[in-house]
Amino acid sequence: MDSKYTIQDIADMAKVSKSTVSRYLNQGYISQEKMDKIKQVIKETGFQSNFFAKRLKMKQSKLIGIILPRMDSVTVGKLLEGVNRILEPEGYQGLILVSDLKKQKEICNISNLQQQGVDGIIIDSLGITRGHLQLLKSFDIPVVFTGQQHTAVHYVKIDDEGAGRIMGAYVRQKGHHHVVFAGVTNMDRAVGIERKQGFIDAFMENHPKAKVDFVKTGFSFESAYASGSEILAFKPTAVVCATDNIGLGVLRYLHEQKIKVPQEISVAGFGGYAVGVVSYPALTTVAFDYELVGMKTAQGLLDLIAGKKMESQSNLPLSFIERESVCGRQRDGVDKDRI
Amino acid sequence: MDSKYTIQDIADMAKVSKSTVSRYLNQGYISQEKMDKIKQVIKETGFQSNFFAKRLKMKQSKLIGIILPRMDSVTVGKLLEGVNRILEPEGYQGLILVSDLKKQKEICNISNLQQQGVDGIIIDSLGITRGHLQLLKSFDIPVVFTGQQHTAVHYVKIDDEGAGRIMGAYVRQKGHHHVVFAGVTNMDRAVGIERKQGFIDAFMENHPKAKVDFVKTGFSFESAYASGSEILAFKPTAVVCATDNIGLGVLRYLHEQKIKVPQEISVAGFGGYAVGVVSYPALTTVAFDYELVGMKTAQGLLDLIAGKKMESQSNLPLSFIERESVCGRQRDGVDKDRI
DNA sequence: CTGTTAGCGCTTTCAC
DNA sequence: GTGAAAGCGCTAACAG
Best of B135, B275, B290 to disrupt the A interface by mutation (most A CBs within 10 Å)? Predict the structure, then answer.
């Protein structure tokens, strides 16, 4: 199978010792003469040093474990792109494990990775449970979370609450009083609680007529679409969706019901995915820069690995993208009747 | 750093020998008594056997290298999802490397992975060059390509040509004579040549009035959008886009130009991404099942690793999704004037 | 500058 | 059944 040369073979062929070859491969500190000879032999043989033997000695794998809730998501892709941008130049590689949206599996993956001897772990978490904390306590390799936050761990995440607030202030300023928040389970703290609460807080503040109804839906376009009638039943003037995906599903439902957006109902989302712009109307949203999140997360982890401190943060810059799906309401009190 | 227990520690604590512990960890063949003792000690210590030492002996890494053109793409996500579905139950893990859309980097990644001692490699390729073939010849670890095909390698891919044909036949049957094919560079054989040629062949066959103009664009929504005016300049009755993404960009351009789709111009794409359904109008497309591609690719690789043969294939099932963006043309010869 | 010598932690004959 | 011993391929003192 593995008809590869070892460092010993190279040494023999170049008529030097193993260590000289090893030195050639690592620090240097050898004569030009032997250096040339070794270089030549290596060229000829196509020698590659054995990864596992090397790692066994080095106590460093140059591997970073990355735990993801799923693979086929735009945000995950962006995140990975950012992580990779930082890891690669430093010679680190990512070992990716998928949790299939299950917290339990996320925990299994952690111990799994730890066993493989990765130098650090990045977790795009579904929720940080007691199980996570306990497991993390039992070993000392650096871990950085994203997606969720918790005081007991390092994390880098978008400012879900702040994003909610921006949207709350905007929708309110547009003159809406009655909105449906199409959100997700509060098992997901970041999206299900922080983002929603930020919205509600900003929307309700000094706003006596304000009313927010909540409809729980899933993360998928399909489940959002399926929640369409339930949302409509509340007769809101606007529906704020916890993610762009949900917004797109709602938009589709409304379109099929021949309800004009934004004239009859306004719709907004969170995420800022490029696809938001192709819908009709284009989706107004708060955009997150997941690539930046990935970069910050990876950088934080690298700092930790290097023995430095890292600051957790949940205040990454947000950008509000006003497109076409939300419009103003001039008069008060008649919103419900307009539907 | 790594204050972990070794097999020796466990042996001492359990008052047995290293080898007994090793046996416990592997085949078995030890007395119940010692077995219990060892099990207990392992529980207490939280011992995890060293991955690298194990791999060094075993000559098997249980690692599969996966080379991807980029991370933030829906198709890549789906593919990975499928690959993972096969690999995981078999105890394999994926080591992912990204080529940033550069063929040269793809090649670097191959040798990189090979050096790490992966058991096999999956390449979602940008194009199989002589460089690839040469490198692959120099070592003997199993490799399966997807995305592109070549007689000298193993591959599993979607039927690009067949997809093109389906679309060609459809557009033609809808009564269109003059279409613009908004495609990509022919450096990408699969999408740039096979898919396009399939379309042209089916569209032109026994179709004297047929005319296909070609506009080259990039893979991104933005670049497709930017090609809008160039496409329009040909005054086609339909524009067939090499990917859904391109279709979405064109749709957006047309929308902003107040050109009605499909009444004035029909638009179609390839891919079948879920997002195609949120555009307005929803995009008619040929859908690929990338998750299935991922599964077949991974299974093929596993077969190769097990010493079995695998059949390359480029005939994975396709499904045509007729949505709203293409409509029929009744009369001949006046198409251009209608614009 | 270079070769010799120990292991890294694990698996695996090979005797007992 | 179990332990002793011999490495897997590499790096890192340690002498020279």
Answer: B275
